[in-house]
Specification:
about 25% helix; Rossmann fold; alpha+beta; 6-stranded mixed beta sheet; about 30% strand; 2 domains
């Protein structure tokens, strides 16, 4: 199936289906403060954690330094808490995943309490195909109740198409994340949280294609990886049309994070907290040919690095220049 996103890029979804139910009423009014940037700004989501994985809070713009094509940029705004979060929970529901999903989502209600009024979560499940169980909703208690039946309530086949599912989730964000109750909104911090064992083969859909669409949607890919948590090696042997699944790579390139959780009930809450308390930086977009890829790098300033010498930062590694 071919789906055209708003940027006009044809996304090969490898036979996956995505059905949009009628939007339900939102449980909250749209009154949450939202981080604003200008139309010519580049936005970068940055996760800053200590060595134990706990979010570092209270950093300001002067604590970061950003380069765009190796040129230092002046950060014009920095926000951690007030921006809305729009998250797609993407769950691998193939047979081998059932015990892990039941354990990880057992404390879903507690995990979602990390989110704030106005944050929204959509639920998708996948194996061979992908289906949306719940559209974006800010009724987080109802979302928590939807997760257990979503695990067993869809016939999505048996094989695992991870890259195709991520592409469908990205398309969902582009189509649905910027509206609430029929009104246009800023979706804020956009993230996909996938729960998977990272076992699968991507047919005719290499990582670069998926990463490009995640960049365009300004969306990070985050993963809770269960089981053996195998990451394919650089010399993995497959035919020219197939590549092994590698959510680690997708996360690294888009500024996301990966937690290996053999049976941890805390993994879900931990990852939601890391997504929720990221920083959103913005700087003026340099002149560039529209559509060209530009590499960016984010680090702490020397002073901030002295205060947090072991801090770990994660941010997307680039973007595609927009038309001026």
């Amino acid at each position: 199936m071919i789906v055209m996103n708003r940027s006009g890029v044809a996304c090969l979804l490898a036979g996956l289906t995505l059905t949009f139910p009628a939007p339900g009423a939102s449980g909250l009014q749209d009154s949450t403060p939202t981080f604003k940037t200008g139309v010519s700004d580049v936005r970068v989501e940055v996760q800053a954690t200590d060595p134990a994985g706990e979010p570092i809070r209270g950093l300001v713009a002067s604590d970061f330094q950003v380069t765009d094509e190796d040129h230092p940029q002046q950060i014009v705004s920095c926000d951690q808490a007030s921006e809305r979060a729009s998250i797609v929970l993407l769950m691998d529901v193939s047979g081998s995943m059932q015990p892990y999903l039941q354990t990880i989502t057992h404390n879903a209600e507690e995990a979602l309490k990390v989110l704030r009024p106005g944050d929204r979560v959509a639920i998708m499940v996948y194996a061979k195909t992908a289906e949306m169980d719940q559209d974006f909703s800010d009724n987080l208690a109802e979302t928590a109740r939807r997760i257990p039946p979503a695990i067993t309530g869809h016939d999505v086949g048996f094989t695992t198409n991870i890259n195709s599912a991520v592409l469908v989730a990205t398309n969902l964000i582009e189509q649905r994340a910027d509206t609430m109750n029929g009104h246009a909104i800023d979706p804020g911090r956009r993230a996909i949280l996938i729960i998977t064992d990272n076992l699968g083969i991507n047919h005719l859909l290499p990582d670069d294609v998926v990463i490009r669409e995640l960049y365009r949607a300004e969306t990070s890919l985050n993963a809770i990886v269960v089981g053996r948590a195998i990451r394919p090696g650089p010399n993995s042997q497959h035919d020219a049309e197939s590549t092994p699944a590698d959510v680690y790579h997708l996360a690294e390139e888009t500024g996301g994070d990966v937690i290996h959780a053999e049976s941890s009930e805390e993994a879900f809450r931990t990852m939601i907290e890391r997504i929720r308390f990221r920083y959103t930086l913005a700087y003026r977009a340099p002149q560039a040919i529209p559509g060209t890829f530009r590499r960016i790098h984010v680090d702490l300033s020397p002073d901030a690095r002295r205060r947090y010498p072991e801090a770990v930062l994660r941010a997307r590694t680039g973007y595609y220049a927009a038309a001026s």
